[in-house]
Design brief:
Order of helices and strands of chain B: HHHH
Number of domains of chain F: 4
Low-confidence stretches of chain F: none
Low-confidence stretches of chain B: none
Largest sheet of chain F: 5 strands, parallel
Number of strands of chain B: 0
Strand content of chain F: 15-25%
Radius of gyration of chain B: 16 Å
CATH class of chain B: Mainly Alpha
Strand content of chain B: under 5%
Structural class of chain B: mainly alpha
Chains: A mainly alpha (304), B mainly alpha (150), C alpha+beta (376), D alpha+beta (181), E mainly alpha (215), F alpha/beta (603)
CATH superfamily of the largest domain in chain F: FAD/NAD(P)-binding domain
CATH topology of the largest domain in chain F: FAD/NAD(P)-binding domain
Structural class of chain F: alpha/beta
CATH class of the largest domain in chain F: Alpha Beta
Distance between the termini of chain F: 65 Å
Number of strands of chain F: 22
Oligomer: heterohexamer
CATH topology of chain B: Ferritin
């Protein structure tokens, strides 16, 4: 596919990911509301929120870094998304996948949070750095089982290319890495709980302790940028997980179903648990998930 | 007494009213009690009003001539008649007027009973009712003023 | 370590007054070392309305709409206590009819139930679980529905007044109470148990956190679920019996541990206890008779000089009213001694050092700090 | 209750006593007796709990009454210890060393009544009020309505006609023993 | 009760020519001074923006007074305000609506002013209960203000003590309607008459130690 | 972290599959409870504007605003509620004496204008007017005391054998308790002819300050002790707490205060300028109006002489009211005060002939308060028989101390207080008494309490009995013949009795006491003056100063007003006190201006 149409298609894809990310946010809010016994907001509420935030006036000024932070955040999300093939076999939705893109993806997963950390720290509110420190500590913790799981997969497939990992899983659900390497999958999906920041691992932005944490000081357009980042980042993560463990997708509907299920997994847990303290969360990730991750790697090693 | 026509009867009635008027005028000149003279003059004036009404009837305007039932409180019925005298007070004046109207009423009732012409009888009854109305006026006044505490 | 060093390592952090984790409109000024609080000072006064001052210039009957505002979630204890104190000082207490006593007991128990439900939800709500607070607030709302039916208002009932209560029980109240409230609460409680007490996360967060040493109980005057969570069966309803509580069949709930979990557990048990007590009360409620004594003209009522202290068990602990009269138609002085005064200031400040920052909000909920009661 | 009061009488001079209820007695003592009495009570009697500390302003007498409510948490009874101190330059010994929570009470009383407790840690530190520059507000000579009028304007446009005065005026009520001013 | 005196009126009157709620199209209607000149476009854009704003009201989670107790049922399952697109936000930076839930002690007022000024425009204040209108039952307290609108611009009042959650919902619907029409311009009035508001605030808060406007 | 503890919380997901708790967002889904306390509603007609709601409102949320013309028993004010203050405690509803104020169960009111939250319920139209549900007054709960402190009475059996006072009077404790029932609305002030400061002295009694109370009472009533015993108490008939209960015992409270002091002069604090030094006033008739004029003018320095035909001052209160209602010492105390004030009293002196003319020349003004002394006649046959007496004569003779004889059986014709007095006096003289009254008992002008007392004493009352004639029986007694009456409606005033023809009842009695009313007698005046002063019914018309058609002649009392009670006479006296001073140029002439509405407080 020529470059120019590819770029255009990627942009369309980003917008689609944003739309999907927002929509899934709305659905989840609705589902959460139902388990709480409420009716809940309309499904399109996140769009309204985004539009509302765009219509507000910016009133704060915390220095240049704090302006850049949302851009980092959004950039992290979009960048991650752009690296991962969404639907294998449809060039328009394969984005900029290349050999070794998994490494880039791992990097981009850090990228947004780090940028956020820089900006939020500059915002001056004490709750922001507290939230950031919690977020980074927790991230470090869940990255370990996730990285181990990725290592296991890479070792299993022998490639750092997501495209190839997906290709290796084709031919029926029994070929999925979820089945092929269940231990790595367990490690990765437990890490996903922390990654998606639903309870019990949402201490980063716990409103009861540190009002929403890092984004405390962000408002209006910056906040909408953060929303964009969060939505696309979530979609990118789900697509990544889909590609890594659920055999990718060969059509858009399949992608929707799989990604939704992945997202729903964290909601399913998050809806019924309170949150851990930071050190408890760290202890959790360094416990069973890490063991599973190590075991997963070992399994691959032994299988060789 | 015999009457042959309505005009005759009305003339008779008008004559009666004039008699009453003259009598009240007469008494008004005699009473000593302050204000009572004025009362009697008013009574006399009232009789003139009655006379005017009757003249209207005579001219053919029967509207409002003692229509419907007139209440009879029967206050004067068992009270003792009084003779007009210079030291009359208000109670006596009312009594006197009441009795006078009652007499007129009784007269018309008798006449109505005595006559055989239904038209005339109706007229007499009407006149009696008219007098009853006058009596009611005084009886009400008596009931309100003299019998207020009773 | 020198002071300067200490200061450099410590971050000052304000919790509140605008803070979703704070209980009500108050604030805690805290100093952090890492994730741990080293010192905390409670700041109150954001809700100070000067009730005690206002009551000094209001006639007795005019004071009574005001007292229920002292504690927002549980106004009836205040109403009852003011009425009880003034009845005792005026001698009206001998004329309060039987039925009024029963209704008062009912109202107090209902308000305890409502407050307990609210706090039980708050226990996990402060830890980020949205499900249970939604349910318990709904259940509390069912209680409020009955309050509205009984008293004519949802939140501020202004119902208990000198000599009795202001209105009779409505027709069919007991049945509606049973089907609309008690049955629904009992149906939901097991699921709530699952979501709270069986939840591994809650257990991790709550067990062994915020432990109040037992020896503080006597000297600080700790009361309510906090003291019962230490295993001490201290309950004003038993210790200083009032209204119809001596005639009701219930045991003081205690447990051990004295931590957040224990206090939540006490509250959970007391919800069940309240449900049971309300059933007992409604069963024994007299159907006939007046619900209020004959009152003198409240615009000119005077009470002979005297002073007294009356107490009752609120959901938070022992609530007390110290009332001084001087023979005029107004109170000379009324002092409201709420349990939060001890729990929310002295006890909280003693507990804060060493507490994780994330545990501050659950800790305050478990102490059931009610700022309007502290500053009045 | 009687026995404990007798015990107290044997050791301290009690000005008056009154049994309000079976579980509540009141005694009055001189200000100097309070701290020794409370110390003795806490150490040697079951009355170990300071339930509350409160102040009554007897403006007419020029005195503050301090009321310490002690409770026997196991015997379920309370004793109210009252003392009166002069209003001018009011000072009272602190009991915060006996009961740590008394600090809060003394801080509040210091703020609300202007009574000074030397040695109590948070004297003069604002507790409830902020930026207060008037009389201590709980004193009876502080007029909250006047303060309200001066500081918190109400919504204008209200007019009240007192029926008592109104009908008197409309129907021409007058007095004859005194000349109108 | 004793005789009441005339209240002392605020130090400064509102500046001449200013109006409490400037209608749409007059003066600064949304605060977007730098919008395109074409009035039709300007108005269309304003309509769209207002529509979005009305659909997504974020309420600051600050229970300033006892009215907060009825906000909890409102946010939780029984009355669920989220179905109207409203949510509680824990920080003023991300809130559009400040609910002053009843009386305000002077100590609270200071914090409320600060929080309000930190909210991004356009922002709205909902006065809840009698206390915000004319002092409510604490009218004679030395520590609570009687009229909120002397210190902060109020867009909607909801009468009651407490107003029931349904009344609150009605109030918010009313606010949404006014936002949609561009009539809820209290924030703009505040900025235009900042001096007057500040004078009132400073008259009451004697130990004013804040910057004059907390961005 | 056991498996159970990890899995158990997931049971919460069950809720996602059941119906949400949320109340649907539709109007009317959750109406206020049947006794919800919502916005106020008021019945404008039932409301009497007493302002008790405003009084009890601790938030000062209620203003009384003028809505209608004030009348006696209705101040014309109506409560206006400021919802910027209201706290919905509904004390105003519970206290409302007339029961007009209530609350609807509507609870939504939203506005952007803070000034909008005020309205006058029942006057300003609101959507919730006429709401069926909401907080209403309940019978079992009252915060004002609707029950009067009972007044001790002598036992009826006992009292028909004695002339001692029937009413025992309040003790101090009882008086304070009764006074504490007052809500100080002031409606009574409007109803009282003399506009006494009723709430003020009741408040003083409640506070235990009897001296202040007495001073307040004497401020515009010179014979309060008499009023305290026999007043017709229009005040109590409009008493706001009497609307749904017993009105305050205003009369008994006044009686309590006035009885407490024997030496009035030393207690009364008189502070008036002696503007009348050197001016002379003659008062003809020593009744309440005359005494009032004399006292209040005398303390102002006027030289006042009272001329009284009877041996004792007091007028009707002396000769008309039996001593078991108003004992002599009480009257003497009042007269003593008059003497102390320097009033010259001439008793046993009937002014006649040209004396009035002479008085007019000698004095600066003359006040006539001669009252109604001439009884109306029965007008029926047999009235002149011996044994038919007039009640006034009977009472006067008894009070002056003459020997009075009524025989064993007496019929009293009439239904006023005089009739009841005559009946009860006859009862005490040992007779069996029957009262024959033309109308129904409810129509009786006599005081309800008097009627009850009379019945308790064994007086039989036959209502709707019209006397037809009196005949002499063979054994020298009287046969009183009466006929029953039916009540017929009237287009003017109350229903009127109408004789049912043909039925006659007979009653053999020793005395027929006629007490149907009395009229004035002006034969003592020179006719030319009388002509200017009086009208045919004997009534005297006066202007706003109390002055008659003749310059310098003032009048008051039963002659002037048709209410025939002492307090109205006192009110007339007070009017004359001012009128005389105006007439003499001491006070400025009254300006005829619209009275300004006294806005008492802006809050």
């Amino acid at each position: 596919m020529p470059l120019l149409p590819k770029i255009l298609w990627s942009l369309v894809g980003v917008l689609g990911a944003l739309a999907y990310g927002l929509a899934i946010g709305g659905i989840i809010r609705k589902v959460m509301a139902r388990i709480q016994g409420r009716i809940g907001p309309p499904v399109w509420q996140p769009y309204l929120d985004l539009g509302k935030n765009l219509s507000l006036r910016t009133a704060t000024h915390h220095g240049v870094m704090s302006f850049i932070a949302p851009i980092f955040r959004a950039g992290g999300g979009i960048g991650l998304y752009l690296l991962i093939p969404v639907v294998v076999g449809v060039p328009a939705l394969e984005n900029f996948s290349f050999s070794g893109d998994l490494l880039m993806a791992m990097y981009f997963m850090f990228f947004g949070s780090l940028g956020m950390a820089l900006g939020a720290a500059e915002a001056g509110h004490p709750h922001s750095p507290i939230g950031i420190s919690r977020g980074l500590s927790q991230m470090t913790a869940y990255e370990l089982p996730f990285a181990l799981a990725v290592v296991a997969l890479v070792a299993q497939t022998g490639s750092f290319s997501i495209h190839e990992i997906v290709a290796a899983q084709q031919g029926g659900w029994l070929h999925w890495n979820l089945i092929q390497n269940p231990l790595a999958a367990v490690a990765a999906f437990l890490a996903f709980l922390g990654m998606n920041m639903y309870a019990p691992f949402n201490i980063v932005g716990a409103p009861q302790e540190i009002p929403v944490g890092p984004p405390t000081e962000f408002n209006s357009q910056f906040l909408s940028l953060l929303m964009v980042g969060r939505a696309t980042f979530a979609v990118a993560k789900m697509v990544l997980y889909m590609d890594l463990f659920l055999g990718g997708a060969t059509s858009l509907p399949e992608a929707f179903v799989k990604t939704f299920l992945i997202y729903f997994w964290s909601v399913f847990v998050g809806a019924v648990f309170p949150r851990f303290r930071t050190e408890q969360a760290i202890r959790f990730f360094l416990g069973w998930p890490t063991v599973a991750g190590v075991a997963g790697v070992l399994l691959v090693m032994l299988n060789r | 007494m015999q009457f042959d026509s309505i005009e005759e009867i009305l003339d008779f009635a008008i004559g009666k009213e004039m008699e009453a008027h003259d009598m009240y005028m007469d008494i008004a000149g005699k009473v000593k009690r302050p204000g009572l003279e004025k009362t009697f003059l008013e009574l006399a004036q009232m009789e003139l009003g009655h006379k005017a009404r009757l003249e209207q009837v005579k001219a053919g305007d029967l509207s409002g001539f003692a229509a419907g039932e007139v209440q009879n409180l029967k206050i004067s019925d068992h009270l003792v008649d009084v003779k007009p005298h210079p030291n009359m007070d208000y109670q006596e004046a009312l009594l006197f007027a009441m009795k006078a109207e009652q007499r007129a009423h009784d007269l018309y009732v008798d006449l109505a009973r005595a006559t055989s012409d239904p038209g005339l009888r109706e007229l007499f009854k009407g006149l009696a009712k008219e007098e009853l109305k006058h009596k009611l006026f005084f009886e009400t006044e008596y009931d309100d003023v003299i019998l207020e505490g009773n | 370590m020198t002071t300067t060093e200490t200061l450099r390592r410590r971050v000052q952090l304000w919790f509140g007054p605008q803070h979703p984790g704070i209980t009500g409109n108050m604030s805690v000024q805290a100093w952090l070392e890492g994730d741990t609080l080293t010192q905390g000072i409670t700041h109150v006064g954001y809700l100070h309305r000067a009730f005690e001052k206002l009551m000094e210039r209001r006639k007795f009957i005019q004071s009574f709409p005001i007292v229920c505002r002292i504690c927002v979630p549980e106004p009836d204890t205040n109403e009852y206590l003011l009425a009880a104190a003034l009845e005792e000082l005026s001698g009206l207490d001998r004329e309060v009819p039987e039925k009024a006593l029963w209704i008062r007991t009912l109202v107090l128990e209902m308000s305890r139930l409502a407050a307990m439900l609210q706090v039980l939800g708050g226990h996990v709500g402060s830890m980020g679980l949205g499900v249970v607070p939604n349910w318990t607030y709904t259940l509390r709302d069912y209680v409020l529905d009955r309050f509205e039916e009984l008293t004519g208002a949802r939140v501020y009932h202004m119902y208990t007044v000198f000599g009795g209560v202001r209105r009779d029980l409505p027709e069919g109240f007991a049945e509606r109470m049973e089907t609309e409230v008690l049955a629904k609460i009992e149906a939901k409680l097991p699921v709530i148990d699952n979501a709270i007490f069986d939840s591994s996360v809650f257990r991790k967060r709550a067990i062994g956190v915020g432990v109040v040493p037992e020896e503080w109980a006597d000297e600080m005057g700790i009361s309510g679920p906090v003291v019962r969570a230490m295993g001490i069966p201290r309950d004003t309803r038993k210790d200083f019996p009032y209204l119809k509580y001596p005639e009701l069949d219930f045991e003081v709930v205690t447990t051990t541990g004295s931590d957040i979990y224990a206090r939540a557990w006490i509250r959970r048990q007391e919800i069940a206890q309240s449900v049971d007590l309300i059933r007992q009360i409604l069963r024994r409620m007299p159907t006939e008779g007046p619900y209020c004594a004959k009152l003198p003209n409240m615009l000119t009522w005077t009470i002979p000089p005297g002073q007294t202290y009356v107490r009752a068990e609120a959901s938070r602990g022992e609530m007390g009213y110290y009332v001084v009269t001087d023979g005029s138609d107004k109170m000379r002085r009324v002092h409201v001694r709420g349990p939060s005064y001890v729990h929310g200031v002295s006890l909280l400040e003693r507990l804060i050092p060493g507490t994780n920052i994330a545990d501050l909000s659950p800790l305050m909920v478990s102490l059931q700090t009610c700022p309007p009661e502290i500053e009045r | 209750m009687k026995t404990i009061i007798d015990d107290i009488r044997a050791r301290f001079s009690v000005e008056w006593e009154h049994e309000q209820r079976a579980d509540l007695a009141q005694i009055g003592v001189a200000p100097g007796t309070v701290v020794p009495l409370l110390t003795w009570m806490k150490l040697h009697t079951p009355f170990v709990q300071l339930n509350h500390l409160s102040v009554v302003d007897w403006l007419e007498d020029g005195e503050f009454q301090l009321t310490y409510l002690l409770t026997d948490p196991h015997g379920h009874r309370s004793l109210m210890v009252c003392t009166r101190i002069p209003r001018e330059e009011a000072t009272m010994e602190s009991v915060h060393e006996l009961w740590p929570q008394a600090v809060t009470y003394e801080q509040e009383i210091n703020e609300m009544f202007g009574i000074h407790f030397p040695g109590s840690p948070r004297q003069g530190v604002p507790f409830i009020l902020e930026g207060w520059d008037d009389l201590p507000p709980m004193r009876r000579d502080f007029d909250t309505v006047a303060y309200m009028h001066a500081h918190h304007p109400s919504r204008p446009g209200r007019e009240h006609v007192d029926p008592r005065v109104y009908v008197g005026k409309v129907f021409g009520e007058r007095g004859y023993l005194h000349d109108d001013d | 009760m004793e005789k009441r005196k005339l209240p002392v009126l605020p130090v400064a009157a509102p500046p001449e020519g200013s109006r409490p709620h400037a209608p749409l199209g007059e003066g600064c209607f949304l605060g977007e001074e730098e919008l395109p000149k074409a009035p039709a476009l300007k108005e269309a854009l304003a309509t769209i923006k207002n529509w979005f704003r009305a659909q997504s009201l974020w309420v600051m989670a600050y229970g300033t007074g006892c009215g907060a107790i009825e906000l909890r049922p409102l946010t939780t399952a029984r009355f669920d305000m989220e179905r109207f697109g409203m949510a509680m936000r824990p920080t003023p930076r991300q809130s559009n609506v400040l609910i002053v839930s009843g009386y305000l002690a002077t100590k609270s007022l200071k914090r409320v002013i600060r929080a309000y000024e930190q909210m991004p425009s356009p922002k709205w204040i909902v006065g809840l209960g009698s206390c915000t209108i004319n002092g409510g039952m604490y009218w004679d307290s030395y520590n609570t203000i009687n009229r909120l609108d002397l210190y902060l611009p109020v867009d909607v009042y909801i009468a009651g003590c407490m107003p029931r959650p349904e009344a609150l919902i009605e109030g918010f619907k009313y606010l949404m309607e006014r936002v949609k029409k561009g009539e809820a311009n209290g924030w703009h009035h505040y900025l235009e008459n900042l001096d007057w508001y500040k004078a009132n605030q400073k008259k009451l808060i004697t130990d004013w130690n804040l910057p004059d406007y907390n961005w | 972290m056991s498996l159970k503890n990890t899995l158990a919380p997931f049971s919460a997901w069950m809720q996602a599959f059941s119906k949400p708790f949320t109340v649907p967002d539709e109007p009317g889904v959750r109406p206020g409870a049947p006794r919800y306390r919502g916005w106020h509603i008021n019945d404008r007609e039932t409301c009497i504007g007493c302002g008790t709601c405003a009084e009890i409102c601790q938030n000062v949320a209620i203003d009384m605003v003028p809505v209608d013309e004030p009348t006696k028993g209705d101040s014309g004010l109506r409560p206006k509620v400021d919802y910027g203050r209201c706290c919905w405690c509904a004390l105003c509803v519970d206290v409302c004496p007339s029961g007009s104020l209530a609350m609807s169960n509507e609870y939504v009111w939203v506005d952007h204008d803070g000034d909008a939250f005020r309205y006058t319920p029942g006057v300003d139209e609101k959507p919730w007017d006429g709401a069926e549900l909401g907080w209403r007054k309940d019978e079992g709960f009252d915060i004002v005391d609707h029950e009067r402190v009972p007044m001790g009475h002598l036992d009826p059996e006992e009292r028909i054998h004695t002339w001692a006072e029937v009413v025992v009077g309040y003790t101090e404790e009882e008086a304070r308790r009764e006074a504490a029932r007052c809500v100080e609305c002031g409606l009574c002030v409007a109803a009282c002819p003399a506009h006494m400061h009723i709430p003020d002295y009741i408040a003083a009694i409640r506070d235990g300050d009897d001296v202040r109370a007495l001073n307040v009472i004497y401020d515009n009533n010179s014979m309060p002790e008499m009023c305290g015993k026999v007043c017709t108490r229009r005040c109590e008939s409009v008493c706001s707490i009497g609307v749904n209960g017993d009105p305050l015992a205003i009369r008994w409270l006044k009686r309590y205060v006035t009885e407490r002091f024997d030496d009035l002069k030393s207690v009364l604090d008189v502070d008036v300028e002696r503007v009348g030094e050197g001016r002379k006033i003659a008062v003809i008739g020593g009744g309440p109006s005359g005494i009032t004029v004399a006292y209040y003018l005398a303390i102002r320095g006027f030289e006042v002489t009272i001329h009284e035909a009877l041996p004792q001052l007091g007028g009707a209160t002396f000769f008309g009211i039996p001593k078991y209602r108003f004992p002599m010492p009480s009257l003497e105390k009042q007269i003593k005060l008059l003497e102390d004030a320097g009033v010259k009293i001439v008793t046993n002196h009937r002014v006649e002939g040209d004396e009035l003319r002479r008085m007019l020349e000698e004095n600066d003004a003359v006040f006539i308060g001669t009252g109604l002394m001439k009884p109306y006649r029965l007008g029926a046959e047999g009235e002149d028989l011996p044994g038919v007496v007039y009640a006034l004569d009977l009472l006067r003779d008894k009070n002056i101390g003459r020997e009075v004889e009524v025989g064993e059986r007496v019929v009293v014709v009439g239904g006023g207080n005089v009739a009841i007095d005559a009946a009860r006096v006859s009862r005490r003289l040992g007779a069996e008494v029957t009262i024959a009254y033309r109308r129904r008992i409810v129509d009786m002008p006599a005081d309800d309490e008097e009627i009850e007392d009379a019945e308790a004493e064994g007086v039989e009352i036959i209502p709707q009995a019209i006397p037809l004639r009196v005949e002499r029986t063979d054994d020298g007694r009287l046969d009183f013949v009466w006929g029953p009456a039916e009540m017929v409606p009237s287009d003017r005033g109350r229903p009127r009795p109408k004789l049912i023809e043909g039925v006659e009842h007979h009653m053999v009695v020793d005395r027929v006491i006629v007490a149907i009313g009395q009229s004035a007698d002006h034969s003592w005046m020179p006719p030319d003056i009388a002509e200017k002063v009086a009208d045919a019914k004997g009534w005297i018309t006066v202007d706003h100063n109390g002055m008659t058609g003749h310059r310098g002649i003032f009048a008051g009392g039963d002659l002037v007003n048709d209410t025939a009670d002492a307090i109205s006479a006192i009110a007339d006296g007070l009017r004359a006190v001012e009128g005389i001073q105006r007439f003499l140029g001491i006070l400025p002439e009254r300006e005829e201006t619209e009275p300004e509405i006294p806005v008492i407080t802006v809050r």
